[in-house]
Amino acid sequence: GLEKIEKCIDDLLESCGGPNIDSVFLTGGTSKMSSVRSLMEKKFGCSKMRPGDAFVSVASGLALSAQMFKW
User: Fold this and answer.
1) What is residue 69's DSSP assignment?
2) What is the pLDDT of residues 13-59, one digit of tens each?
């Protein structure tokens, strides 16, 4: 559950040299769960949370990335 998510975040931050995070954008259906959102707010603070459309953000990001490739 949430313990695995929190450990994954902690391991990632440790491997990067610490929590040097400017903003946090949650994406996907799981990000709509209040327990996940609360965990992220606890980890990074409410001021770093950025709103957006959790269900189209992945597709938008893929579309932007696709522009970098020549087809």
Assistant:
1) S
2) 999 887 788 999 888 888 889 999 999 999 999 999 998 888 888 88
Cα dist from 23 to 27, 58, 68, whole Å: 13, 17, 24
Return the higher-pLDDT residue of 60 and 19. Answer: 60
**DSSP 3-state of 41:** helix
> Which tokens go with 65?
């990335």
How many CA atoms does the CB half-sphere of 71 hold within 13 Å? 4
DSSP symbols for 15-40? HTTS---S-B---SGGGGSHHHHHHH
